[in-house]
Amino acid sequence: MKRDADETPDSSRREVVFLLGSAAAASMFGCGDGTSPATPLTPSSSLPAATGSTGASCIVRPQQTEGPYFVDERLNRSDIRSDPRDGSLRLGVPLRLAFRISRLAGGTCSALAGALVDVWHCDALGVYSDVQDASQGFDTRGQKFLRGYQLTDVAGAAQFSTIYPGWYPGRTVHIHFKVRTSPNGASGTEFTSQLYFDEAVTDRVYSQAPYNSKGRRTTSNQGDGIYQGGGSQLLLPLMAEGEGYGASFDIALQL
């Protein structure tokens, strides 16, 4: 089985529009739940934007390769840290990941309800569940940790509880995600991409257990071939949250 590093971005990639704003992050994190306000860790990237009729700034982002480790498990759950077989948890720094999916039509963005959002990534030691990869030294077939999906609600929101991902040779730190507007139908839009992390935050996380048992990572964002295909536009806007981090990512699909 080939590693992610051997994959190249789909040459016929579709484009997606991301609506970035502090209001979205505030609506998802630190409001009305009794927690302290989230602290920004990284500034928003400065990117060219187009303004729709709603006045929102719409930023076009790239699709990226699905990679070799996608398994269509159809695990409907928000907390993806456990293995459903025995309930065991994958250890790591907590990460709350929220999406808000919108549709863009005629310059207007509106909430997209009922879209299926899949998330999957490796654990703190760089291992994916339910796959075999001799080149990476693991066989986890039958396990299903760090995989799951949510359907967007009437506000287009889908949220996951997970951990900060680890690393493995040939790839920088990343999370895979896929959005399907009609997962059970013959037609519909499918958008697949990856999320990336600020290098300084990753270094702080990886100084802690269990990440530090794996040693120093070998690939940075700039050294990752897939990241070079638009990864700078897919960096998560991380916020400090309790003992971990939170991130809110708004996405508007051009349907």
Give the overall average pLDDT. 81
- Based on CA atoms alone, the radius of gyration comes out at 17 Å
Low-pLDDT residue intervals, each spanning 5 or more residues: 1-57
Strand content is 25-35%
CATH architecture annotation = Sandwich
Termini, distance in Å?
A: 34 Å
Tell me the name of the CATH homologous superfamily. Answer: Aromatic compound dioxygenase
User: CATH class, anyone?
Assistant: Mainly Beta
In this structure, how is the largest beta sheet organized?
Answer: 9 strands, mixed
Shape: globular
Name the structural class. Answer: mainly beta
> How many distinct domains?
1
| Residues in helices, as a percent range | under 10%
The total strand number stands at 15
CATH fold-level topology? Protocatechuate 3,4-Dioxygenase, subunit A
Number of helices: 2
Element order: H for helix, E for strand = EHEEEEEEEEEEEEHEE
Question: What do these coordinates show?
Answer:
- With 255 residues, this protein is mostly beta strands.
- It has a single domain, classed as Aromatic compound dioxygenase (Protocatechuate 3,4-Dioxygenase, subunit A).
- It contains two helices and 15 strands.
- Strands 1, 2, 3, 4, 5, 6, 11, 14 and 15 form a nine-stranded mixed beta sheet that branches. Strands 10-7-12-13 form a four-stranded antiparallel beta sheet, with no helix packed on it.
- Strand 8 and strand 9 form a beta hairpin.
- Mean pLDDT is 81; it is low at 1-57.
